[in-house]
């Protein structure tokens, strides 16, 4: 049926590109960011393997002490004095051993799962708080709650939290709480949401005035749906960018805590406490600090590169120039 | 067009509506006691210059503005919208009153496919399943004249032209078959050929669904072709009300006359060009309105009672009324200016 009211179909419709694919197309062209992404993917695999092979199906035992094999350099072969079940897989110490003869490779594997899970869980917590508070402050801003506006209450609270010297706050809290990995995740998450809250609020202030928000209200959509289904996806690109950089920050914080001995309890290996143990033998066994140090550097660098790549890929102006 | 029975009950009845905005300089009235009715299935145009309060009136009906309704009532199908709770109001919006906006470019959410945006309303108000909503969505796209709806539904707003986006907005607005459609300058952002298509589409949908339409515009050409009755608004008040024929053939308020005088007439294109008449002066700021008629300072017919006293709506002929002292035989016994220039 073609009524005079129907538009003529001028040309064949070009296949639609989802926003995700557009970003991915631009991101793929960014070599540094792609390098970062590959590093992260390898790390993700290692973290999963680390969890499985050191805790569930113990192929690499990070806690096994081999006193005859103290401070062996990387790629060295275990000594003949070891019992059969003490010999590491492949018959070699890829990253050497520490002062108790523990296999550093096994410890690094275990640590990688700790680092990544701390990073992701802490950032998830901080995103949840930041997006919710920022969204509420931005959307309901002028509304009064008592003598103050909602915006003023939330943002001044954010400012107050921002005033705490975060790292020392974390140190204090961790010193008071039992040293468990979950407490560390929670504490890092609870002290790093302020930046997210601030720019989600800023993004919402401008989104709120956009016509599609009024249009959504005119359709009778409930407010929570307008906020979380219509506005949050539009505010997502800066959130993702800062989240990827925040993961790096969280990993660094966890390493620092473990280094200072406030982190995960010692028999359990993390990159931070491997580094801390290694510093005593800095001249005799430089691999003990060089290996975890390099790993931390690589992860933080990779997350930052991916974050910056995302920022460029999500910026339509830069995207046009690049393609 | 058949004359409508003036006695039939109104679908939307606005009485003495007042809307004020809080500013640093105190509260500023944007709408100052507006009255009008829309009956089921009819089209009423609300015309006026920018800033006269016509959009605020429309948003007040939907309860979507930052201003405050300080008086009056908005009766829609027997319930006063101004008194509904927010959840009750949400069930009216989108389901019983649809709205389309001036800017189709920015009224769709840029991150969702248009099909999903149409389906969302259907799921929300009619409780359809995703599959049923999808079928309805394609049907709606077809109805608003978008070819190959299956592909279009999968596209994002930026892949559509302005006219198409407005068609999508219309599809969303009529998705739940509302009894009233508020069209706030639906064609202002579109070019002229697309305007005509969109208005033709609105007219055919209105007949098909038997909707009432509140058309808000400053485009008198659109009004003449589309509306049945017209309310002319000036500085937050309705200054003239009548049928389209009344307003265009026998404009009674000097403001309406001036508006029509500012409109180029379509004549023989080879005839010598005539200068269009501009309305001198500016719309008074709503923060400092004169005590009498707000148009007084710009009016070439102004006489003694205009400055101190606000004219009520005075009958001109039948249901045609105008808020102008010229039409009060007691004050203007000579009948000066009663008949158009």
Query: Could you estimate the helical fraction of the residues of chain B in percent?
Result: 25-40%
State the end-to-end CA separation of chain A.
Answer: 40 Å
Number of strands of chain B: 12
Share in β-strands of chain A: under 5%
Based on secondary structure, the structural category of chain A is mainly alpha
* Helix-strand string of chain A: HHHEEHHHHHHHHHH
Distance between the termini of chain B: 27 Å
Strand content of chain B: 15-25%
Unreliable sequence segments of chain A: none
Largest sheet of chain B: 8 strands, mixed
Which two chains share the most extensive interface? A-B, 27 and 44 residues
- How is the biggest beta sheet of chain A arranged? 2 strands, antiparallel
CATH topology of chain A: MetI-like fold
Jot down its keywords.
heterodimer; A: 323 residues; mainly alpha; MetI-like fold; 13 helices; 2 strands; elongated; B: 341 residues; alpha/beta; four-stranded antiparallel β-sheet; 10 helices; 12 strands; disordered N terminus
Give a description of the structure.
The complex is a heterodimer of chains A (323) and B (341). Chain A is mostly helical and 323 residues long. Chain A contains 13 helices and two strands, in the order αααββαααααααααα. Chain A has one domain (23-77, 87-322): MetI-like (MetI-like fold, Orthogonal Bundle). A two-stranded antiparallel sheet of chain A has the order 1-2. Chain A is elongated. Chain B contains ten helices and twelve strands. Chain B has helices at 54-62, 86-92, 114-126, 130-143, 149-153, 162-174, 192-209, 220-226, 244-249, 254-261, and strands at residues 10-23, 26-39, 43-47, 68-76, 79-80, 97-100, 180-184, 212-217, 229-234, 237-243, 314-317, 320-322. An eight-stranded mixed β-sheet of chain B has the order 6-7-8-3-9-10-12-11, with helices on both faces. Chain B is globular and about 70 Å long. Mean pLDDT of chain B is 84; it is low at 1-5.
């Amino acid at each position: 049926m073609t009524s005079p009211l129907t538009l003529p179909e001028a040309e064949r419709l070009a296949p639609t590109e989802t926003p995700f694919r557009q970003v991915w197309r631009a991101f793929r062209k960014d070599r540094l960011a792609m390098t970062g992404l590959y590093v992260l993917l390898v790390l993700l695999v290692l973290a999963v393997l680390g969890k499985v092979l050191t805790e569930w199906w113990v192929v690499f035992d990070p806690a096994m002490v081999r006193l005859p094999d103290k401070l062996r350099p990387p790629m060295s072969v275990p000594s003949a004095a070891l019992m059969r079940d003490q010999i590491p897989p492949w018959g070699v110490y890829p990253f050497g051993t520490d002062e108790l003869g523990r296999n550093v490779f096994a410890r690094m594997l275990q640590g990688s799962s700790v680092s990544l899970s701390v990073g992701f869980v802490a950032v998830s917590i901080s995103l949840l708080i930041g997006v919710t508070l920022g969204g509420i402050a931005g959307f309901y801003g002028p509304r009064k709650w008592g003598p103050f506006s909602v915006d003023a209450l939330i943002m001044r609270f954010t400012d107050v939290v921002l005033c705490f010297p975060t790292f020392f706050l974390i140190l204090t809290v961790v010193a008071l709480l039992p040293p468990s990995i979950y407490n560390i995740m929670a504490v890092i998450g609870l002290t790093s949401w302020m930046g997210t809250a601030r720019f989600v609020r800023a993004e919402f202030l401008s989104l709120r005035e956009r016509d599609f928000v009024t249009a959504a209200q005119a359709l009778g959509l409930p407010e929570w749906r307008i906020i979380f289904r219509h506005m949050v996806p539009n505010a997502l690109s800066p959130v993702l960018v800062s989240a990827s950089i925040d993961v790096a920050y969280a990993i660094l914080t966890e390493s620092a805590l473990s280094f200072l001995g406030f982190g995960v309890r010692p028999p359990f290996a993390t990159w931070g406490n491997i580094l801390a143990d290694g510093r005593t033998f800095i001249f005799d066994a430089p691999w003990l600090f060089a290996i975890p140090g390099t790993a931390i550097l690589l992860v933080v660098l990779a997350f930052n590169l991916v974050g910056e790549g995302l920022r460029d890929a999500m910026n339509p102006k830069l995207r046009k120039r690049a393609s | 067009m058949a004359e409508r029975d003036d006695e039939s009950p109104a679908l939307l009845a606005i009485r003495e509506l007042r809307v004020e905005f809080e500013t640093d300089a105190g509260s500023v009235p944007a709408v100052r006691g507006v009255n009008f009715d829309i009956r089921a299935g009819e089209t009423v145009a609300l015309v006026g210059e920018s800033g006269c309060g016509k959009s605020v009136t429309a948003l007040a009906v939907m309860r979507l503005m930052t201003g405050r309704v300080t008086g009056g009532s908005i009766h829609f199908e027997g319930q006063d919208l101004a008194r509904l709770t927010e959840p009750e109001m949400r069930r009216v919006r989108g389901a019983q009153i649809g709205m389309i906006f001036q800017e189709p470019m920015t009224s769709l959410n840029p991150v969702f496919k248009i099909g999903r945006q149409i389906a969302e309303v259907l799921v929300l108000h009619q409780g359809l399943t995703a599959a049923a909503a999808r079928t309805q969505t394609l049907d709606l796209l077809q109805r608003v004249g978008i070819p190959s709806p299956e592909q279009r539904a999968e596209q994002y707003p930026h892949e559509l032209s302005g006219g198409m986006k407005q068609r999508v907005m219309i599809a969303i607005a009529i998705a739940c078959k509302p009894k009233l459609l508020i069209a706030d300058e639906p064609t202002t952002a579109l070019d002229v050929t697309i305007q005509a298509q969109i208005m033709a589409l609105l007219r055919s949908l209105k007949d098909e669904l038997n909707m009432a339409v509140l058309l808000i515009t400053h485009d008198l050409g659109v009004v003449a072709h589309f509306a049945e009755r017209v309310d002319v608004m000036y500085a937050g008040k309705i200054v003239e009300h009548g049928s389209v024929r009344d307003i265009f053939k026998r404009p009674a308020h000097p403001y309406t006359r001036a508006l029509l005088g500012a409109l180029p007439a379509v004549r023989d294109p080879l005839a010598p060009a005539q200068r269009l008449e501009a309305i001198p002066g500016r719309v008074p700021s709503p923060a400092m309105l004169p005590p009498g008629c707000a148009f007084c300072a710009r009016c070439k017919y102004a006489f003694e009672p205009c400055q101190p006293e606000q004219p009520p709506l005075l009958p001109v002929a039948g249901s045609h009324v105008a808020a102008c002292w010229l039409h009060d035989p007691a004050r203007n016994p000579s009948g000066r200016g009663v008949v158009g220039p």
